[in-house]
Design brief:
seven-stranded antiparallel β-sheet; 13 helices; 25 strands; 2 domains; binds flavin-adenine dinucleotide; FAD/NAD(P)-binding domain; seven-stranded mixed β-sheet; FAD; Cholesterol Oxidase, domain 2; alpha/beta; GMC_OxRdtase; GMC_OxRdtase_N; GMC_OxRtase_C
């Protein structure tokens, strides 16, 4: 059986970062297992966000359970299944979060995770090419970050409308002050996606001490009593075992709790129901699940040539392709949103509680992301720090069966109120005078939806996830509600840690790629004895 110092399961945002950092020390022998392929031909192009959203070649294509809170709809849950994980298929929006997020983690008992502790990790991971090193922004990290270069009179009108509606702008929302309507910073450089595969894993693969195995589906971790001794995975139809001093699960918010349960770690009743021997009771495995529910309003536009529905359809698609090939710019180089808003729904709030994504086109269906036929724009809004808690648990002892995902979106009154207020703020921006020249009728939901109840019902009936599942192996001091401690060790099991978005105790205020990479950086420091 092959022996390593470290086995990392999942080559995503956190796992890929961790593998690269650990192998900086030549004596560390590391095995990185990834269920997906080594690459996908579309991945480096930012448009791959749309092209891979329903593509099984790079995506797990999970689905939620139908739940009454969201009109019993089955909501698609895409996750990256390729080297780089979700960082290879995501919407490329780069957000650190608010200092308050991490100070809250520290306040919940996670020593070493306050903003003061994690800010240097955010600095070291990035090379913000449009920054000058102020605000703690990185200038020589492995992952290049740039501000969207796309210009469009619609953006100017939206900035002016936001100002007219009473919202400020902000020169750097990834500083300690997030508030404002802003041009998006992205994990894109010169039109190419800056995934963890490209920025961390591929350079590290030149090292002899990193062994990367792709198309390797981890089935379970191997336990000797209360000690983890390695993993069992399937490769080319064969079951393979590997041993390590430390095993780190980095399979993401959906799959890390699944692998624990398949290994006999979790809620005893649930494991027994599926015929799995209980090796270690941990009630919080798969619980404390949070995600962002994303409500999108679509407006028709009077001016066609500011909307990519007009500029990127038919012959326009060819023009955009030529532009992309020649300059690395245009439609195919955009992140999921070129403008963002981090705003307060109530003036007395200390920091923003909603995030908006302002998009110069609309899609027919978020499941396939096909462009709508008419000139239009979208603004989407989610509450930054949702309170509602869902769960992710196995539905079967079969490691290939997708787990049961229950969002429980909008269960909490705070979430309902913030989403309703955020919805009204989207309309407030677009109704402002500077948008008069562009705004046509609201296409979806349309003017018939007005009262708080109508808005909330519409959100329940139509909204999707913003693709940020977190919390299912929550970090914190040992207790009913946590799975790992602040050194990311699974409570009660030796030699097993978890490093990915599943350990977030609460939702960071924004998109979750940068905080997931930060977890990989932090895990590396802990294992190197530097944290
Ligand atoms: C469609 C989409 C759009 C998004 N847009 C943005 C955005 O614009 N900005 C942003 O900041 N965030 C975005 N996110 C979220 C962000 O990308 C994720 O939060 C982040 O990548 C999670 O990192 P992770 O390390 O926890 O998991 P992942 O990066 O998902 O990595 C988990 C890895 O584990 C592998 N794996 C799972 N199970 C097994 C197994 N049994 N055996 C072996 N390997 C396994 C997976 O294949 C995957 O490679 C988006 C996500 C998606 C899916």
């Amino acid at each position: 059986m092959a022996e390593y110092d470290y086995i990392i399961v999942g080559a995503g945002s956190a796992g890929g970062t961790l593998a690269a950092r650990l192998t900086e020390i030549p004596t560390n022998k590391v095995l990185l297992l990834e269920a997906g392929a080594a690459s996908h031909p579309y991945s480096r192009m930012p448009l791959s966000f749309g092209l891979l959203i329903d593509n099984p070649a790079a995506n797990w294509l999970y689905q939620s359970e139908p739940e009454p809170n969201t009109a019993n709809r089955v909501i698609p849950v895409p996750r990256g299944k390729v080297l780089g994980g979700s960082s290879s298929i995501n919407g490329l929006v780069w957000v650190r979060g608010q200092p308050l997020d991490f100070d809250t983690w520290a306040q919940m008992g996670c020593r070493g995770w306050s903003w003061r502790d994690v800010a240097p990790l955010f600095t070291r991971m990035e090379n913000f090419v449009d920054g000058d090193g102020s605000n703690g922004r990185g200038t020589d990290g492995p992952l290049k970050v740039s501000t969207v270069p796309d210009q469009n009179p619609l953006y100017d009108a939206l900035f002016a409308a936001s100002k007219a509606a009473g919202f400020k702008t902000n020169p750097d929302y990834n500083s300690e002050d997030q508030e404002g309507v802003v041009k998006t910073q992205t994990s894109i450089y010169k039109g190419r996606r800056m995934s963890v595969a490209h920025c961390y894993i591929e350079p590290a693969m030149k090292r002899p001490n990193l062994h990367v195995v792709t198309n390797a589906h981890t089935l379970r971790v191997l336990l000797d009593g209360k000690r983890c001794i390695g993993v069992e995975y399937e490769k080319d139809g064969k079951t393979v075992q590997a041993r390590a001093k430390e095993t780190i699960l980095s399979a993401g918010g959906v799959a890390s709790p699944q692998i624990l349960e398949l290994s006999g770690i979790g809620q005893p009743e649930l494991l027994k129901k599926h015929g799995i021997e209980v090796k270690h009771e941990l009630k919080a495995v798969g619980e404390n699940f949070r995600d962002h529910i994303n409500a999108r309003i679509i407006w028709r536009l009077k001016v066609a040539n500011v909307s990519y529905n007009h500029m990127a359809r038919g012959i326009g698609a060819v023009t955009q392709m030529m532009k992309y090939l020649a300059t690395g710019g245009g439609f195919m180089s955009l992140p999921s949103a070129p403008l963002l808003g981090f705003l307060k729904t109530r003036p007395e709030l200390e920091t923003p509680d909603v995030q908006m994504h302002l998009v110069p086109y609309s899609i027919k269906d978020p499941k396939t992301r096909k462009l709508q036929d008419f000139p239009s724009m979208t603004i989407a809004c989610y509450q930054l720090r949702p309170e509602s808690l869902g769960s992710i648990h196995i539905r079967s002892a079969d490691p290939k069966a997708h787990p049961s995902i229950r969002f429980n979106f909008l269960a909490d009154r705070i979430d309902q109120d913030a989403m309703t207020a955020g919805f009204r703020m989207m309309r407030r921006i677009v109704d402002a005078k500077p948008m008069d020249a562009y705004r046509d009728e609201e296409f979806s939901p349309g003017p018939s939806v007005q009262s708080d109840e109508e808005i909330l019902t519409w959100i329940r009936n139509n909204s999707q996830t913003a693709y940020h599942p977190i919390g299912t192996c929550r970090m914190g001091p040992e207790g009913q509600n946590t799975v790992v401690d602040d050194k990311l060790r699974v409570h009660g099991i030796q030699g097993l840690r978890i490093a990915d978005a599943s350990i977030f105790p609460t939702m960071p205020s924004g998109n979750t790629n940068a905080p997931s990479i930060m977890v990989g950086e932090k895990m590396a420091d802990i294992l190197k004895g530097a944290a």
